[in-house]
Each structure stands twice: as C-alpha cells, then as structure tokens.
Amino acid sequence: MAYASSLLRLLDERGYIHQVTDAEGLDALASKDVVTGYIGFDATAPSLHVGSLVQIMMLRRMQQAGHRPIVLMGGGTTKVGDPTGKDESRKMLSDADIEANIASIRRVFERFLSFGDGPTDAILVNNDDWLSGLGYLEVLRTVGPHFTINRMLTFDSVKLRLEREQPMTFLEFNYMILQGYDFRELSRTRGCRLQMGGSDQWGNIVNGVELTRRMDGIEVFGLTTPLITTADGGKMGKTMRGAIWLNADQLSPYDYWQFWRNTADADVVRFLRLFTDLPIQDIEKLAELQGQAINDAKVALANAATAMLHGEEAAATAAETARRTFEEGASDDNLPSLKIVEGRIGIVHALTALGFAASNGEARRKIGEGAVKLNGVTIGDPQFEVTLVDGEPVKISLGKKRHGLLRA
Q1: Where is the motif named 'HIGH' region mapped on this chain (predicted)?
Q2: Beta partners for 337?
C-alpha cells in the first residue's frame, strides 16, 4: 500500500516491513502524532551481535522520521529466557551479570540513537523495574485470564520445541506473557503505541497488542521485519568465526569492516538499504555496478556500516588497512593479532585461536588446500610450528581476504 506517514514510507522503501497488525491505523496515527515505539533486547551477553542490527536500525529510522524510540532492556525477561528459535533452555545469569551486560550493551545504542528528554529523544528502560515487583497471584489474576493455553500452544516458539521433543520449562512458557505485559506497561506509563521486532516475534507482539486492548482499551500496533538471511539462505551474522559482535572489545572494527566487505554480490544493495544511512538515490547508483565494480558497493557498505558503529576514523583506518594488506601485501598494526606467549605456536592452533577456522579439522583442511600462508609463503604441513624470531611479528593469511598477525 502507499503510505502517507514519513515513518512507514521510510521503513517501506528501506525494506523493513513484513507484517503490521493494522497498517492503515498505524499510518494514520504516525501522520498526525509523534509515535512512541519500542523493541526489546534481552541481556544474555555483554554485546549484541549483528543479527540484532536490523532492530537497532528500525529504532534509528523511527527517530529519523521524527518519532520516539524506546530501547527496552530485558533485565527481567533475561531471567526467564525467550524460547523462540531455541532447542534448549537458556543459561541462568545472576543479577550482577545481567546488570553488567546491560551497561555494556547500552554503549552500542548510544552510537545509533540520540538519548535525552526531548519529544523524539530515545530512552532506555529495564523491564526488571516492573516485572520483579509483580506478585505471582497478581499475574495469575490480572493477566492470566487474557491468555489461553490452546492459543499459546500454537505459537512457533512453543510448537517447534514440542515437535522436536525438546523440553520446555514452565519458566520459559511464561515468557510470552511477560513480553505482552511489557507492551501494556509501556503503553500505560510511556504512551507507547508500537512494538516492533523480527518476524519470529509476531506471536508475542500480537499477544501484547491484544492484552493492552483488553486490559486498558487502548489501540496499539505491532510491526515486524522480514527474517534477514543472506543470499545463500544462511542466518544473518552467522559466520565461520561465530557471532559478529557489535562491541569493539568483542570484535575489532577491522573485523567488523571485513564482515561487510565480504558481503555476497546478491546481498549488497539490500544491506545498503537496511544497514546504512546512504541516500536511496546513491544506493540505486551503486546497484547499477556490475562485475568487479560491485566491489566498490561493498566497500561503501563496509565504510558506512563501520563508521556508524565505530566512528569515521575507525572505518577509514580499517579501509586503509585492508587496502595496504590486499594491494601492497603489507602487514599492519590494525590487523587482528594473537599474542604468542612462548614464541612459538602450531599453525593449526594459530588458525583456530584467531577465528580463521572453526575447528582443528577445518584448519587442517585449509592447510591441505594450500590456502594458508605465513609472510606470503604457503604452508602445507599441518604439524608446522610458527616461531617468532627476535620477537618480530609474523603475518598469517587464509586465502586472499583473511589476515592476522602473530606477535610476541
């Protein structure tokens, strides 16, 4: 449909919209009022990864369109565990671990959003502030009657777990109730009218929409994004090295830049729309590039995405490091490095420790394929030991795109 509001037009042209509970109603509201909308993020680790980036960008788009984003940190729901897409229960974290994770994660949001007290400034809230104060009987009496077991069993987060005969605890089964309660609480206390999330959250979001309407008579809305996958059908952000973390202390800006630079040809234009602020007309020009020239679009993606998260200087440094490494064969201090305590290390161990291979078997296979080099010399023996002479660093390469330094 053709949207009247700048919010939905922006989300639509950038490729974020998959499902909306009431598109016409939300469009009308966003055309005349400042809409407050939220997305929830559980604090299971000290950093979010790139799989959460599309949600962060949606909050950024809200603010760019003149609306008010809420970052909801799940200090309370992290204690329960979202069963969506999981085959086993989440590891239980202490209150101190959760608080430390939230403090660490907040630094990333401050790169993407402007926080403050203005009408469109972002705010960060913690659902532990209200969930931990709820009494069990209170939840059963006030919220429980609005959920039926029959319907809860139809949601994918529950149904898929049961179909795989994987146990689901009663604790996890309550997650969707708590998420629905979050929406109602934010509607009541913050005037929040919109919850957004990935397509796998559709059922949980609809629960919150219906709960808010039934308990308070307030019309609120839900919007989900498509599942973001790569051209080969893989999950966004899942790589040989594991998760692509957003915090710099979890993943270097250089490695982050390289992740985007290595985007598949078929994904680059879509990712430029989703993950950068480049104007649509500039992206359309990059979309016309063919053959080797499409690498210019990948560099533009890597530069823009890295600058947004880590700053212009870090992006420029990463780009220059890549240029010198690939074009001049130079070693550079900004490459990912591994400290060698005793001055020597097995080549297989070096590859896995740097994250260039996911296992020893994969490392041996790459060596057997002739894909591993030390200071430009191919290493074909998986038993080879790298020795640092006089403490001089050694450059280790896997193929043409992965490079690191072994240091004393």
Answers
A1: 43-52
A2: 405
Q: pTM for this one?
A: 0.79
Measured CA angle at 342 (ends 338, 348), to 5 deg: 55
**Can you list the domains of the chain with their CATH numbers?**
6-225 (3.40.50.620), 253-327 (1.10.240.10), 337-407 (3.10.290.10)
Q: Does the annotation place 175 within a ligand binding site?
A: yes
Asked if 181 and 143 touch (Cβ cutoff 8 Å), the reply is yes
State the 10-residue block means of pLDDT for the chain, 408 residues long. Answer: 95 97 97 97 92 96 98 88 51 86 96 96 94 73 71 68 68 75 94 95 90 93 92 68 83 90 92 97 95 93 97 93 68 72 83 84 89 85 82 81 80
Report the distance separating Cα 269 and Cα 260, nearest Å. 12
Q: Is 254 annotated as a binding residue?
A: no
List the structure tokens of 153.
Answer: 């069993």
d(CA 173, CA 64): 36
d(CA 111, CA 63): 13
